[in-house]
Amino acid sequence: xxxxxxxxxxxxxxxxRVEHAIADVRDRHGAALAAGPERTAGDEFQLATRxxxxxxxxxxxxxxxxxxxxxxxxxxxxxxxGPSVRALAGSAFVAAREAVTAAKKRxxxxxLVVAAQHDPDAxxxxxxxxxxxxxxxxRRTAEGWELADLLDADPDRTLTEAAELLGISTQAASQxxxxxxxxxxREARGALETLLTAADGRIGA
Length: 205
Fold this sequence. Notes:
Helix content: 40-55%
Low-confidence stretches: none
Radius of gyration: 18 Å
Mean pLDDT: 94
Distance between the termini: 6 Å
Shape: globular
Number of strands: 5
Strand order of the largest sheet: 2-3-1-4-5
Structural class: alpha+beta
Order of helices and strands: EHEEHEHEHHHHH
Number of helices: 8
């Protein structure tokens, strides 16, 4: 199971954003979640999923949004399973707690931990790869994100179609995509999803 523990940064000096974030996650990824997001403590929420792609997408969205420390944990769940994320426990939640604690000390505010008792080498393999992807995204300009969002919103949309929507030439869109690292980003996300799925599969439920 993959668990996200998400903590709002400096919530004492900012309005509470947890409910808005929970609603957004439910709206965009609810069907892929084994246990939907719930506030678990003050300015923190958690969720659980078996869908590595959904877990990675949610984590990347929250990091991009800013204002969150995001911990992604991979591990097992204790039986019997509870009816909601607040009633669940297990090594996945312990790993997610360790991850969000580490995330609070990092500039990107993200960390990934795979429960060591299940896969002792996986954290050292996976965590740096996600942080490399985040580093690539940190350099992306607003124009690069504008193109990325258009292409992500419709997997069948071509670069030429996106260029028309943006009112720029296909050549300009191609250069923008290259500068923004869009192909590398997509390939990296696919590879990470495969690796996370494999890590979760080695653990089981």
